[in-house]
Structure formats: structure tokens, C-alpha cells
Amino acid sequence: MNSIRRALVAALVFTLARPFAALAAWNKEAFGAKTPGDALKTLGIGNATPSKDVVIDAPQIAENGAVVPVEISSAIPGTTALIVVAEKNPFPLVARFDFKEGALPFVKVNLKMAETSDIRVIAEAGGKHYVATKEVKITIGGCGG
Amino acid sequence: MRATLGQGYTDVRVLMTHPMETGQRKDSDGKLVPLHFIQNVTVKVNGKPVVDAQISQAVSRNPVFTFRLKGGAKGDKIEVSWLDNQGESNSTEAAVA
């Protein structure tokens, strides 16, 4: 009886969750994580190999944490995603970019940083993960403004 | 939005007018301004999705993104659309010049 009920509940949860997944492709759990480790774990990223082919172009010192210009790219063949983490932000996961055939793994955008910390970029290629970090010093934090 | 041909690639530069509120900022009355930020960004070339982005409130206000596409030709139709946490959305189109 119990196992039948469990199966029914599972089927119900499955049918209810499916359209949601299609509608809101935004990883609430990963973006809601309060530590970089938790965010990456939620995204299924465990060990990432340090790589010079993951490139982060960001200023050493940013006076205004509300506008930190960052350019990220990966020279690793077959890169399908870039994940950006601002280590000491209240919610460290900043973005996940998925690239399909026709796009190069490259993004330039301005970010907000709460305080001086590393920016960590993870590239996904062939099911493996590669990582690079770069420290950005922040004079005025950018989360309240 | 501007889509410009380079050597073997096309750069797509797009501005999204959006407050990107973090939910931590207080207004002049000292009240917290609620979270309001873009969550999804999609880039399509001639109707085919090429970039899917999920972003947080940590992207700056009025975001300007530059994406880079493989190859490209004059006249290719680029479409960029976004959806925010309050269900608002917008999309813009341009041809590669």
C-alpha cells in the first residue's frame, strides 16, 4: 500500500514539476546558495581543473563595486558553458551561460561585487570542468546601490 | 543592439534597460526595494538559439552584454530576449552589419 502511494506521489511530483522546468529554466537552488561551494555542488560541479585556457579579463581594482567590467572566454575545445562566481557576494553564483553550435564561449558584461574577492570562472567541456580565478579589489561595495 | 562582423566572428552588443534590483537597496523612505532582476537571456541567430544564459541580481543595472558568434554573414538576423523574476520580458532584433 505504502509503495503504491509512494509511486503515485512520485508520478504526481514528476508531472507537476515537468512543465515548470520547461517554463522557468532558472536554477533557483543554485542562485539561492549562500556559498560558492553549495552553488557549484547544485550545478553538479565537483572538482574543476585549473586551466590557463579559461580567461578572465577584469580590473585589479574597481572603485565602484556596482559596475565591475568582466570579460570571460574559454579556449578549451568543445566548451559548452561558462559559469561565473563572485566568491564573497551574498549569493555567489552570478551567471551560467550555455553555448550551442554557432556561439563562441565568450561574454562581456558588468557585474556587482559586494567586496574585494576572487571572481571564479568555470568552463564546461566534454563533461569536464576547468577553472580560473582573478582577484578584484573593490573600493565601494555594489550590493546596496 | 549592434551586431558587427569581425574576422571569422560576429560580436553582438546589446543593452537591456532594467533596474536589476538586488533586494538589498533602500529607497528614500528607508524601505527595501524588492528584488527585480533579469533571470534568463536568450540569443538566437536566424531563429536558432545559440546562447542561453541564466543570470542573478549581481549583473549591473541596465546590463550591456557582448556575445560572440562563430562566423556570421551580413544580414543574419539576431534576436536577443530576456525574462525577469516578475514575469516581464522584452526582445530586440537586429541584422548583422
The value of Rg of chain A in angstroms is 18 Å
Supply the number of structural domains of chain B: 1
Category from helices, strands and their pairing of chain B: mainly beta
* Sheet with the most strands: spatial strand order of chain B: 4-3-6-7
Quick one: overall form of chain B? elongated
- Count structural domains of chain A: 1
- Going by CATH, the homologous superfamily of chain A would be SoxY domain
Classified by CATH, the class of chain A is: Mainly Beta
Q: How big a fraction of the residues of chain A is strand? A: 35-45%
Examine the secondary-structure arrangement and name the CATH architecture of chain B: Sandwich
Task: Classify the beta-strand content of chain B into a percent band.
Answer: over 45%
Q: How would you sum up the major sheet of chain B? A: 4 strands, antiparallel
Q: What is the average of the pLDDT values of chain B? A: 96
The SSE order of chain A reads: HHHEEEEEEEEE
The computed structural class of chain A is alpha+beta
Question: By CATH's scheme, which homologous superfamily of chain B applies?
Answer: Immunoglobulins
- Poorly predicted regions of chain A are 15-24
- Which chains make the largest contact? A-B, 38 and 33 residues
CATH architecture assignment of chain A: Sandwich
Approximate helicity band of chain A: 10-25%
Q: How many alpha or pi helices of chain A?
A: 3
